[in-house]
Structure formats: structure tokens, C-alpha cells
Design a protein that fits this description.
The protein has about 750 residues and is mainly α. It has 4 domains: about 200 residues, no CATH class; about 230 residues, no CATH class; about 120 residues, no CATH class; about 80 residues, Roll (SH3 type barrels), CATH 2.30.30. The protein is about 60% helix and about 5% strand. It is built from 29 helices and 9 strands. The longest helix is centred in the middle third of the chain and has 53 residues. The protein is elongated and about 115 Å long.
Length: about 750
């Protein structure tokens, strides 16, 4: 593992956690704890693998096609084969980390920031796995905060009084989850199978860490290690009594170091939150800095002019509780009416004033004002976001009051991307952006509205409500994602099939055109070749290929038929007489391939063709021109319909678009989203496939269904005219993250920090 290093020398003491192992008097205790951890994890890892076969079998039964089903069945055998190796690597990783801690060999790694431009280069599958590990660990970290706080304090005592950073703590949730990722790396299991394993691991092992941490603390307490320790998270220094923030909320924050407030918003969430704090502080120092903040007035603008005292934290929470109750009623009676930030601040001021004996002497404290304004700016951003359909904006706006309560109680909402309340908002917003179609085919809007009602009606300070609702919502959206992906795959496969037909039809049309080149046969022969024999050529190419003998004979038959209906000399007429029987056999066999022809229909058609040949050779062109082709089935023509016209158009198209724009379009990746403006309305579609035959782009809607087909020239022209554009790159980025970055830039402008 990357967190492990060599035993430190005396010269490297500053970079290590300890210059030697744990204190000798704790040696036996350390080994006892090591055994407890390894036995617990081994038992729960066994439970994890015991569920694999049943789970993969269920997945196979629900697979969208035979290929995926076979993948699940094959993976069952592969996981059974790899299980001993995975378990061995997992236990070695955990055991090595604990041993390094006991021996004083853990080395604190230096944090490195990944440049923003490099984030896009991270492999999608690696990112998905890392995200699974982070999410699992974060849920345990939140749920077991008191037990982990106590355990970390006791481990520090064992470690000669030196704290063990969470990122390399061998017993931290992230290390325990990361060990599975490390153990799975040598395998070549598909990502979909790995995600199943992560899900089972989370359910069977990670959710059992509560008992492990309690057992470890109990064992350490029994050994006399900080037996009277109480859970008390570190807080910032309390403000002095004269400070405007006296008797206010406090928070757990660490200083991230110097931040360049003139640069782009930091990528790191904690740096971003610290930068927001500093920008808000600068804004407050400016004269008359109580004006609008990105659309809504600052909470400071509601303060009475002569107010010297600040509202207590309890008063503020009680006022928000009353507002939340009112919001629950409003949401029931008027679900389609958005909750605006300005209205909430006005109502909050009214609630505070109406329940205070001296409202003219009170105002909201500076720290709370910043939090209220910051949350307000986030929800202003949500209501203004052009990517999110209006009904979803309305629903999410009602989370303003609960989220304000969360932020006042726990400012980690701004600094921790995996905060449960933040993740719930992000999940619902992203689902609305991706799948929020007007017809609400999958019931997504109803689900979002239900989740919002649960929060508004039941949130009283316990963040586990957000975790529970997030788990249920993610399970719901996984079903939508699978259905949409299946619809899109079907649309693409259908398009590929049509494209293959079009390619074959184009080759057949070229063969017919070559046969008719410099020849003018009577209408019945031309119609037969262009309307009927072309389909025979298509079927033969699809079945046998364009290099097959069958294809060659069919093309020669078309050539011979066209030749037979032109004026011939005596020698050529003798040759026609010798070829006629074989030609008619080829024509009969080809017509039977098409289906829909009875033997009598084929016989009459061939008789008409022979009659035409005789009329031409007898010098009776008028008689030949009176013969006509009877109506015949044309399955390919009906199937291809407008695609055939698109192909013909694309072959003749003259490119007038900007060459640089065409070059850019040629490099487009599937999955790129576009905004199309039609009749003043915006339609957001995803590029799903590009036809190498017609050079057309196929777009699907939010439901994964085919919605538009555009040629490269047409798309380039619409982009030049402004009726089409690529959606913004951050369209699917987490909503709160985008909001905080936007707020950061607004505050830079308000404080003059922009260059």
C-alpha cells in the first residue's frame, strides 16, 4: 500500500509518526487489538463472498440481453476462482498496516493537489472504484464519529502521544475500504462485477464496523487507556463576549494555509470553503456591504440600525423550525410554487423579531449572517440553473430551510463534498438534469418531491435522515439509469442495423448503375433492376458479403439483363440465346430470396422480361415500352424509408461549413450533450452514434430514445447560426459544487478580487 514506508532513521524523524513502535507496556494490548480486528474483518469478508453467487445469479436473471447474462454467469466462476487470492491480499494489506503502526513504521505521505486539467484524464473505471471506496468510508465516518474520535485519541496515546492522521490510520474506514480496492486491482473482473462486490462489501463488512470500533474502545478502556474520555470534537476558539458572534454556532475547521483570492476557485473543497469565508469577511468590511448578494438581499440588511445584541443560537434554530413547519404546509398546498431566498430571509427576520422582547436591539450575528447568505446564494444558483428543468428547481427550493439548519449546525456542508445533505441535493439535481423529461416517464419528479417532503416534514437535526433518503433515492435512480441505457443501446443497435442496410444498398445501387451505364433499356428492365434486383443484391451482400461468388453472379446477372435489352447483332443474339436459361434461373433464385413472391408471380414476371428482350431484338421498341413492372413487395424500401434519402443527400452534399468547426465535430465523443433551439424552446440531446455510411449524427433524448438525426454539415450550420451548441462541460457536475464555485466568483467580483 502507498501508506506504508520503511522504518524511519533518526534523520527522518519529522516525517514519521513515531521514532519507534508503541510504548512497550502496550505491546500485548496492541497484539490483542490486532487479533480482534483481523478476526472481525475475516468473518465479515467471508460473509461478503458468501452472498456473491446468489447476487450475481439475480443480476443475470435481470440482465438486459444474453451477452450481459453470460457475463454474470462467467463472472460467478471467475470470482470463485479468485476468491482465495482476493482474501489473502486483503488480509495482508490490513495486517501490514497494523504491524507498521505497532512497529512505528507508518510514514505520513505528503498531500498533493491534482491540477484541475488532469482530473479529466483519470480513468473512468478507476474513478468509479475510488468513488465507491470514498462513499463507503464517508458513511461509516459520519455514523461512527463518536467511536472513531475516542479510538483515535486512544491510538495516539499508544503511539507515544502522537496522533495518527486519518489518511494512514490502519483502522480508519477509508483504509479498511481501500484494502478491497487494492485486493481487486490484480484481477481483470469487469467494472460491473466489481461494483456488485463493493455493494456486498459495504453491506456485510462496512456496516459492521460500528461493532468493531465499540469493541476496540471497550478493550482499550479495560486496559486503562483514557477510560474517562468523552466525545468532544475540536472547535475553533470561542469568540469573546464583545464579539458579534458571541453565543453563536461554532464549527470544526482546519486552516488550509494561504489562498490566492484572485485566482480561480480552488479545486480542493476545504480550500474553497476557506476562500469563501475570507471573501465574505472582506465583503463585510466594505462600507455599506449589506446590499444584494447575487439576487437576494444580505441578512445583514434586515438588522435594526441601533442593534447591539445578537440573537442566541437557540432563537435562530427555533425560528427556522417554525419556518420549516410552515414550509411543510406550503409544500402540501402549493407544490408547484418555488420558495424564493428573499422571502425566506424576510420570514426569518419576522419570526425572530416577533418572538423577542426587544427586537430593535437584536440582529443576527456575523457568522450566522455569512452562513445564511451563503446558503441563500446556493439556492439562488439552483433556481437560476438553466440545465435543471423548472419542476425540479421548485422541488429543491423547499430544501432551503432544512439545509440552512444543517449549515448552522455543521459547516462541513460547505467543505465536505460527501456530506450527506450535500450529496442528497447533488443526487436529485443530477437526476433532474439527466432524466428530467417533460413526460416524467419514470416517475422521477414524483420521487424527488417525495424525498423533499420527507426532509421538510421530518428533519430535526439527525443527518441519518439524509443518508437513509439518499440510499433510497440512489436505488431508485439506478433503475432509471439501467432503463435509459437499455433504450439507448437499442436505439444505437437499430441505427447500426439500418446503417449496415444503407451501406449494402449503396453498394447495390452502384452495381445497378454500372450495369445501366451507357445503356437505355426499356422501362420494365430498368424498373426491375432499380426497384427489385437492387434488393436482391442487398440481401446477398448482407448474407454472403460483397466479395462472395454469390454477389459476383448477381452483379453479372444484372449486367446481362441490361445488355439483353439493347439492340444486338447476330452473334450477340446467339450468345443471348445460350445465356437465357442460366440468366432466368439466377433471376428466379434471386426473387425467391426476397420472399413475398409466389411461383406464379415469378413465372409471369420472367415471361414479361423475356417478351421485352424479344421485342427489342425484333426491332419493336414501342411494344417493349408498353410492358410494365407489376406491383411487388419492397421490404427494404419500407424499412429504410427516409434513411435512403439521407444517404443520397449526404453523397451529393457540398460542405459550406467552417472547416475548423467540421474538424472539431469529427472529433466529437459519444455522450456529448447538445442544446438545440427550436421555436424559442431549448431541447437538450445526447450524441449517441455517428454513421460512417451516411456521415450523420444520431441524438437521443433524456429517455435514451432516438430524437434527431443530423448530417455533419447540418449540425455545423446550426452551430454557426447559434441554434445548436455543445452543453457546458460542467452540466452534470454536482450542483452544490457548481453553486459554490459560482458564489466564489461572485464574491471575487464584489470584493474587487477579479483580475
Amino acid at each position: 500500500m502507498s501508506i506504508q514506508g520503511k522504518p524511519p532513521s533518526s534523520a527522518s524523524t519529522p516525517s514519521t509518526l513515531a521514532s519507534r513502535g508503541i510504548q512497550p507496556r502496550f505491546g500485548e494490548l496492541g497484539q490483542s487489538c490486532r487479533k480482534l480486528v483481523l478476526n472481525h474483518l475475516a468473518d465479515h469478508l467471508t460473509r461478503t463472498f458468501a452472498q456473491v453467487d446468489d447476487t450475481l445469479f439475480q443480476c443475470a436473471e435481470q440482465a438486459e440481453n444474453n451477452q450481459v447474462q453470460a457475463m454474470f454467469f462467467d463472472s460467478m466462476r471467475e470470482v470463485r476462482r479468485l476468491r482465495p487470492q482476493i482474501e489473502r491480499h486483503y488480509h495482508l494489506s490490513i495486517s501490514k498496516g497494523i504491524a507498521d503502526f505497532l512497529d512505528g513504521k507508518l510514514v505520513a505521505s505528503q498531500p498533493t493537489d491534482v491540477p484541475a486539467e488532469d482530473l479529466a484524464l483519470i480513468d473512468n473505471e478507476a474513478y468509479e472504484e475510488a468513488l465507491q471506496v470514498t462513499n463507503m468510508a464517508q458513511r461509516v465516518q459520519t455514523r461512527c464519529a463518536p467511536a472513531l474520535f475516542a479510538l483515535n485519541k486512544r491510538l495516539a496515546l499508544l503511539n507515544n502521544g502522537q496522533p495518527v492522521p486519518a489518511e494512514i490510520n490502519p483502522l480508519s474506514p477509508k483504509t479498511i475500504a481501500q484494502a478491497l480496492l487494492t485486493a481487486l486491482q490484480p484481477s481483470e473482473l469487469p467494472l460491473r462485477i466489481k461494483l456488485v462486490l463493493y455493494g456486498l462489501f459495504d453491506k456485510q463488512l462496512m456496516q459492521g464496523l460500528d461493532a468493531l470500533y465499540e469493541a476496540l474502545n471497550t478493550r482499550l478502556i479495560e486496559a486503562g487507556v483514557l477510560p474517562n474520555l468523552k466525545f468532544a470534537p475540536a472547535r475553533t476558539a470561542q469568540p469573546s463576549p464583545s464579539s458579534p458572534s458571541a453565543s453563536s454556532f461554532t464549527e470544526t475547521r482546519r486552516s488550509p494555509g494561504p489562498i490566492d483570492l484572485t485566482a480561480s476557485p480552488p479545486v480542493d473543497a476545504e480550500h474553497l470553503a476557506a476562500g469563501l469565508d475570507r471573501l465574505l469577511a472582506e465583503y463585510r468590511k466594505q462600507q455599506h456591504a449589506i446590499g444584494p448578494l447575487n439576487g437576494s438581499p444580505s441578512m445583514a440588511s434586515f438588522a435594526p440600525q441601533d442593534a447591539k445584541r445578537t440573537y442566541e443560537a437557540g432563537e435562530l434554530l427555533e425560528a427556522l423550525n417554525r419556518l420549516q413547519q410552515a414550509s411543510a404546509v406550503e409544500l402540501t398546498q402549493h407544490p408547484g410554487r418555488p420558495l424564493h431566498v428573499t422571502d425566506l430571509k424576510t420570514d426569518l427576520h419576522r419570526q425572530l423579531a416577533s418572538h423577542n422582547e426587544a427586537p430593535q436591539q437584536h440582529r443576527v450575528g456575523g457568522q450566522e449572517t455569512d452562513i445564511i447568505d451563503l446558503v441563500g446564494m446556493i439556492f439562488d444558483f439552483i433556481l437560476d440553473d438553466e440545465n435543471l428543468p423548472q419542476p425540479y428547481k421548485v422541488a429543491l427550493s423547499h430544501l432551503h430551510t432544512p439545509c440552512l439548519k444543517v449549515a448552522l449546525l455543521d459547516r462541513a456542508l460547505f467543505s465536505q463534498p460527501h456530506h450527506p445533505a450535500r450529496r442528497l441535493i447533488n443526487a436529485m439535481a443530477q437526476a433532474g438534469v439527466l432524466y428530467g423529461a417533460q413526460d416524467d416517464t419514470y416517475g422521477l419528479l414524483a420521487k424527488v418531491q417525495w424525498v423533499v417532503r420527507q426532509v421538510v416534514q421530518h428533519f430535526s437535526g439527525d443527518l441519518r435522515l439524509f443518508e437513509m433518503l439518499l440510499g433510497e433515492f440512489e436505488e431508485f435512480t439506478r433503475g432509471i439509469t439501467q432503463r435509459v441505457e437499455l433504450q439507448e443501446r437499442r436505439a444505437v443497435e437499430t441505427a447500426k442495423g439500418r446503417d449496415k442496410l444503407l451501406g449494402a444498398r449503396h453498394s447495390a445501387a452502384q452495381a445497378i448503375a454500372q450495369a445501366l451505364a451507357k445503356r437505355s433499356p426499356p422501362p420494365i428492365i430498368r424498373q426491375f433492376l432499380e426497384r427489385t434486383w437492387i434488393d436482391v443484391l442487398v440481401f446477398i451482400q448482407l448474407r454472403h458479403g460483397a466479395s462472395s461468388q454469390e454477389w459476383q453472379r448477381a452483379c453479372e446477372t444484372a449486367e446481362s439483363l441490361a445488355w439483353s435489352a439493347t439492340a444486338l447483332d447476330a452473334a450477340q443474339r446467339d450468345r443471348l440465346q445460350r445465356l437465357r436459361v442460366d440468366m432466368l434461373d439466377e433471376l428466379r433464385n434471386g426473387l425467391m430470396l426476397l420472399g413475398g413472391y409466389h411461383e406464379d408471380d415469378v413465372r409471369r414476371l420472367l415471361q414479361d422480361l423475356v417478351a421485352c428482350q424479344h421485342a427489342v431484338q425484333a426491332g419493336q421498341p414501342q411494344l417493349a415500352s408498353k410492358l410494365s413492372l407489376p406491383p411487388s413487395p419492397n421490404p427494404l424500401g419500407a424499412l429504410l424509408s427516409d434513411e435512403a434519402a439521407l444517404l443520397a443527400t449526404s453523397r451529393k452534399a457540398q460542405r459550406h461549413a467552417d472547416p475548423s468547426l467540421v474538424s472539431e465535430l469529427e472529433k466529437l465523443e459519444f455522450g456529448t450533450w447538445f442544446d438545440f433551439i427550436l421555436g424559442g424552446k431549448r431541447q437538450t440531446l445526447k450524441l449517441s452514434w455517428y454513421s460512417p455510411t451516411t456521415h450523420n449524427y444520431m441524438f437521443v433524448d433524456r429517455n435514451g430514445q432516438r430524437a434527431a438525426v443530423k448530417s455533419m454539415d447540418q449540425l455545423a450550420e446550426e452551430m454557426q447560426q447559434g441554434t445548436a451548441r455543445r452543453s457546458k462541460p460542467d452540466r452534470s457536475a454536482p450542483m452544490v459544487d457548481r453553486a459554490l464555485h459560482a458564489v466564489y466568483r461572485v464574491l471575487q467580483q464584489l470584493t474587487g478580487r477579479t483580475t
